[in-house]
Design a protein that fits this description.
Mean pLDDT: 90
Low-confidence stretches: 1-47
Number of strands: 17
Order of helices and strands: EHHEEEHEEHEEEEHEHEEEHEHEHHHHE
Structural class: alpha/beta
Number of helices: 12
Largest sheet: 11 strands, mixed
Helix content: 25-40%
Shape: globular
Radius of gyration: 20 Å
Length: 431
């Protein structure tokens, strides 16, 4: 019996921790030498030689946003990475009253700041001490009470790219919450580069070796995380506290969520996770994939056989949308999983392409890099979010997530996926 093995090179993983062909990896690495992008927002006034800093952009919805974290332990599963019960961390964002007061949440948990700083300086080329990562803030208020809604708020889950962590997608998650959703984002422990737990403990990611068996385990673990998270949110809605340390939860959560309206979106392997979770769990009503292949192994020209997910092989009978970059559409056979999914999808489906984008266009990079100015290494911005304007990358990603879930969880019509919008000219519907 042959065992197909490919170890992910660390230098590649830290920039492209996503299921893509080696050709697209090479394109992404070469793009690091392209020109930088327009500035999204003016950087904070700086003292000469002082570290640059940033805050995430303001949300666009009618509601302010609160946030808290959950430490979940699933004792019904054995962790496929390290053995023992499966544990992972979650950030929940949700609408709050306009008069709510409190402390703005940090972009990174304090225990992750040294890890991220080391990554940016060792692997991304940032000068030591050039950026004050610790001071970055989200617009969300820590532990603010949930704003009550007569029906309860729809619930949406988010999963990040392979080996990345939920904090790198905060701009989109918080913005969706500001439009009237409870949004819960996960970090998938031991696969993610690092995950911070209460008390400052940090679980660092393992070196991943890709085999037919291991890639299936990674996806199965993510699907299990998502399903357990939805179970935990349902317990909170009934008045229970599933946090492993029983930390106090914000007030107003009991009865505050509507589990007849549940969505799931993700980036890269997180989009793969959304589709596969929907295949196995009918509690999820709609899903959105930002540039994630719908396969566990990727086929030629790589050295593992192509292995489509169940969602790709059999399709879904509920709404699902694909949004890709770098030619990644259902018309491009370079990734056979999207054409296969498109043929088999029975529910509502749409495809949007961002021709000037790259794989991480849909992350926080477009929000956090422009304010840092000359602290960003030459070409790094273009390598992470492409050559479309940074402001459009942020706004377009937010708008498409919002429009998708507004349509399928709230019944609000949109033409965004059919005819596009002049506000986001680089987000182009694919027939």
């Amino acid at each position: 019996m042959f065992r197909f093995v490919r170890k992910i090179p660390r230098s590649i993983r830290r920039l492209t921790a996503a299921p893509r062909s080696w050709l697209s990896v090479a394109v992404l690495l070469l793009s690091l030498f392209a020109s930088a992008l327009p500035v999204l927002a003016a950087p904070t006034a700086a003292v000469p030689n002082a570290p640059k800093r940033f805050d995430l952009p303001a949300t666009t919805g009618p509601y302010r946003v609160g946030t808290f974290t959950l430490h979940l332990v699933d004792r019904s599963r054995i962790d496929g990475f390290v053995g023992g019960p499966r544990e992972f961390m979650v950030t929940v964002s949700y609408p709050i009253a306009p008069h709510s007061r409190g402390t703005r949440a940090p972009w990174l948990e304090p225990a992750l700041v040294p890890e991220w700083r080391a990554t940016t300086e060792r692997d991304y080329g940032f000068a030591p001490g050039a950026v004050d990562w610790a001071s970055a803030r989200r617009p969300a208020i820590v532990d603010a009470p949930l704003l009550r809604h007569s029906r309860g708020w729809p619930v949406v889950l988010f999963s990040p790219g392979l080996q990345y962590f939920r904090e790198l997608y905060s701009a989109s998650v918080d913005d969706l919450a500001s439009h009237g959703y409870v949004v819960a984002s996960m970090s998938h422990t031991h696969e993610a580069f690092y995950t911070a737990f209460p008390g400052g403990r940090v679980a660092r990611g393992l070196d991943l070796v890709e085999t037919v068996e291991s890639t299936q385990m990674w996806l199965d673990t993510r699907v299990g995380d998502a399903r357990h998270l939805l179970d935990a949110l349902a317990l909170i809605n009934r008045g229970f506290n599933p946090d492993a340390e029983l930390r106090r939860l914000p007030t107003g959560l009991r009865g505050g969520m509507d589990f007849s309206r549940v969505g799931f979106f993700g980036h890269s392997y997180g989009g793969t996770t959304a589709a596969e979770t929907m295949f196995f769990d009918r509690r999820f009503d709609a899903g959105l994939d930002f540039d994630g292949r719908l396969s566990t192994t990727y086929g030629p020209p790589q050295d593992l056989p192509y292995g489509p997910t169940r969602a790709a092989r059999f399709g879904l009978d509920r709404p699902f949308a694909l949004i890709g970059a770098e030619g990644h559409t259902h018309l491009n056979p370079a990734d056979p999983s999207w054409p296969e999914f498109w043929r088999n999808q029975r529910g509502w489906k749409r495809d949007v392409h961002v021709p000037l984008g790259v794989h991480f266009t849909f992350s926080d990079f477009a929000a956090i890099l422009p304010p840092l100015g000359d602290a960003v290494p030459a070409g790094f911005a273009a390598g992470t979010y492409g050559t479309l304007p940074a402001a459009e990358a942020v706004a377009g990603t937010r708008a498409h997530a919002r429009a998708f879930f507004d349509l399928h969880l709230k019944g609000r019509p949109t033409w965004l996926f059919d005819s596009g919008s002049p506000r986001y000219p680089n987000f182009q519907p694919v027939p």
